[in-house]
Amino acid sequence: MGKSKRKNASFKSRSNTNKSQKSAADSVQESTSQPSTPVNYSECPSAPLWRRLGSIVYDQLVLWAIWIATGFMHAAIFGIESTKNADQLTHTLFPMLLGATFLFYYWFWTHGGQTLGMRAWRLKVIDGRLDGTPPHFVKCLLRFMGAFFSISAFGLGYVWVLFDPNKDTWHDRISGTRTLVVPKEENKKNRFKDSRRIPKDPV
Fold this sequence. Notes:
The protein is mainly alpha-helical.
């Protein structure tokens, strides 16, 4: 009789344990299945100058590695002797470096709107409509070219954020994009993937 009671107690204990584990698993599943609240980008502040400069410093470290790899690629294609010809470097190496730099920014801008440096400073580039869509190819190209213009004008294109009503740079204005500071929850999401909401290039 005593053994039967101990067996029933042991069975009830295991049953209660299984139920508690199941309820905990269900609660975790429910919390993970709940969709996150979409970000209202119109409420996100424009990126201040110091955050923009900080992201540039971070990205520069990655770009140095890309430029070195591009230099090795150039030497493999055109030969080591080509590095002694300034004219050939101007017509071959410089376009390759420029193209590699654009591809770096274009890939990240269209895959979540954040470079590695921008993720570190919680910055994100989106279309000027503020609907969360990343910029398309034409806008990325205009933004890239506009950034060169902003830098070549003694950096005035970046300093312009201190005077612009929307705190935008020249290349933000030129390309019709916005650079915003996003919430921490939004910044933690893995967005290094192509968005299906990317609009088609204008004809």
